[in-house]
Design goal:
CATH class of one domain: Alpha Beta
Bound molecules: NADP nicotinamide-adenine-dinucleotide phosphate, guanosine-5'-diphosphate
Shape: globular
CATH superfamily of one domain: NAD(P)-binding Rossmann-like Domain
Largest sheet: 7 strands, mixed
Order of helices and strands: EHEHEHEHHEHEEHEEEHEEHEHH
Helix content: 40-55%
CATH architecture of one domain: 3-Layer(aba) Sandwich
Strand order of the largest sheet: 1-3-2-4-5-6-11
Number of helices: 11
Number of strands: 13
Strand content: 5-15%
CATH topology of one domain: Rossmann fold
Length: 340
């Protein structure tokens, strides 16, 4: 467990009671978004106390371990990121585990937060839990409007139930338990294991290997395989932007209704365009080919960020290519300690 700012217990309580300071427990604090939060709090929110925990601190599928964690930390606020997370292929092969683990984690965290009188919990849903058959753009009112894409129904139904639980805790106890709905997130500290990862970290890892293996083959003769047709459309958000928005939500988002955290609709890209951005960051000289024998998943999940824009009109998202460049640089520099 990593308290971000060190201070004596006396200092902490004086500050806490005088300033209405928040003590924010970040579950999933060792992952992609958790690590981005550690950076972003130094930019915007140093006055609060942030406690980052991972599965080594407490297995949140276990009720007793979750309660013990809340007893120890005594948070006033929770950013609930912990989840079984993965890309299309990991979801397709493990729907039962995605369903059960995420149901268990979410139930334990929300009930513990209620029992400890937490003032706010912000949980993470995802734009990939929306109905498969829908009109576009998708907005926050459409979470429960029809079955999710069959590839990831386990993850989707577990995540949708967070919204149901949030409403029920509010109805019965008045809790402010809410959720955000990010699009596909990427950045430093991502899970880069190709068999479980999302598309961008998976492609970064595979392209690095392709460039560095078989030194006898000229790079321009090498072929990078994009899984699927390359045609599906996705919105991608840089983890640092996601973290900045979460910090704002802790302080300013008052509703229990979900809030989409996504780049604008016009910044949606095809999977092939995402592969081209990764190739550009590596200055890869070879060819990109699509393997249509592999699954495409949902064709598109275009989400509207109109509600976010109405609340935070001036937020600047990092450009997609800059964020890809940063992620590739981080991967190359940190590969030895990364999830590869
Ligand atoms: P991540 O990098 O895979 O990190 C997952 C985190 O959850 C890790 O800190 C992990 O701890 C923790 N965790 C997993 N199982 C746990 C357990 N049984 N007990 C305690 N902790 C556990 O995930 P992420 O990409 O940061 O995702 C953060 C949140 O955003 C998740 O709720 C995810 O569903 C949501 N989201 C992600 C994306 C995306 O594209 N990545 C998109 C939309 C929404 P250890 O590492 O210590 O095991
Ligand atoms: P999704 O956005 O929730 O569907 O999940 P992903 O981040 O895994 O993206 C899946 C999309 O990227 C599908 O259209 C895949 O066919 C395509 N794709 C291309 N290459 C890869 C890869 O290396 N890994 C993954 N996970 N998907 C890939």
């Amino acid at each position: 467990m990593v308290p971000h700012h060190f201070m004596s217990i006396k200092q902490f309580f004086v500050l806490f009671f005088l300033s209405g300071m928040k003590k924010v427990l970040v579950t999933g604090g060792t992952g992609l978004v958790g690590n981005a939060l550690k950076i972003a709090i130094n930019e915007t929110s140093p006055e609060n106390e942030w406690v980052f925990v991972g599965s080594r601190d407490a297995d949140l599928t276990n009720e007793e371990a979750t309660k013990a964690l809340f007893d120890l930390v005594k948070p006033t606020h929770v950013v609930h990121l912990a989840a079984m997370v993965g890309g299309l292929f990991h979801n397709m092969n493990n729907n039962l585990d995605f369903l059960r683990k995420n149901l268990q984690i979410n139930d334990n965290v929300l009930q513990s937060a209620y029992e400890h009188g937490c003032l706010k919990v912000i949980s993470c849903l995802s734009t990939c839990i929306f109905p498969d058959k829908t009109t576009y753009p998708i907005d926050e009112t459409m979470v429960h409007n029809g079955p999710p894409h069959p590839s990831n129904y386990g993850y989707s139904y577990a995540k949708r139930l967070i919204d149901v639980q949030n409403r029920a805790y509010h109805e019965k106890y008045g809790c402010i338990f809410t959720s955000v709905i990010p699009c596909n997130i990427f950045g430093p500290h991502d899970n880069y294991k190709p068999e479980v990862s999302h598309v961008i970290p998976g492609m970064i890892n595979r392209m690095y290997k392709l460039i560095h293996e078989n030194a006898d083959i000229q790079e321009k003769e090498k072929m990078f395989v994009v899984y699927g047709s390359g045609k599906p459309l996705r919105q991608f958000i840089y983890s640092l932007d996601m973290a900045r928005l979460l910090i704002w939500a802790v302080d300013c988002y008052k509703s229990i209704d979900p809030l989409i955290l996504s780049v604008d609709e016009e910044n949606e890209v095809t999977i092939l365009e995402a592969a081209e951005a990764v190739a550009k960051a590596f200055d890869f000289k070879g060819k990109l080919i699509c393997d249509t024998s592999k699954a495409d998943g949902q064709y598109k999940k275009t989400a509207s960020n109109r509600k976010l824009r109405s609340l935070l009109p001036n937020f600047q998202f990092t450009s997609f290519q800059d964020a890809i460049n940063d992620s590739v640089k981080w991967f190359i520099e940190n590969m030895k300690n990364a999830r590869v």
